Amino acid sequence: MIGKVIRYMRKQKKYKQEVLGEMIKVKGNTITQYEKGQRNPTFETIEKIAELCDYTVYFKNNITGETFTSKDLDRKDI
């Protein structure tokens, strides 16, 4: 599933896989593997890709409506 999201974000920015790979310092074929579900990126990698594609990864509590990103958390909260 995350592969489809990565592909969607990349295509919205019109980045080639090789270009996005260079931007996050991985080989272009690694992006291909992410998109095909052959390899799973780390959460940090997902956040980097989202940021480069002008998206934000956030968490939403479906009951309270509270939202936050990983950047909103202090180390003491973990």
Summing up helix and strand content along with how strands pair, one would put the structural category as mainly alpha
Low-confidence regions: none
Number of strands: 2
Report strand order across the widest sheet: 1-2
Count up the domains. 1
Strand content: 5-15%
CATH homologous superfamily designation: lambda repressor-like DNA-binding domains
**General shape:** elongated
- The pLDDT mean sits at 93
Structure description:
The protein has 78 residues and is mostly helical. It has a single domain, classed as Orthogonal Bundle (434 Repressor (Amino-terminal Domain)), CATH 1.10.260. It contains four helices and two strands. The protein has a two-stranded antiparallel sheet. A hairpin with a 6-residue loop joins strand 1 (59-60) and strand 2 (67-68). Helix 1 crosses helix 3 (28-36) and helix 2 packs across helix 3. The two termini are 26 Å apart. The mean pLDDT is 93.
Topology:
Blueprint lengths: L1 H11 L4 H7 L4 H9 L6 H10 L6 E2 L6 E2 L10
Antiparallel strand pairs: 1-2
Helix pairs in contact: 1-3, 2-3
Provide a quick synopsis of the model.
With 78 residues, the protein is mostly helical. It has four helices and two strands, in the order ααααββ. The chain starts with a helix and ends in a 10-residue tail after the last strand.
Key terms:
single chain, 78 residues, mainly alpha, 434 Repressor (Amino-terminal Domain), two-stranded antiparallel ribbon, 4 helices
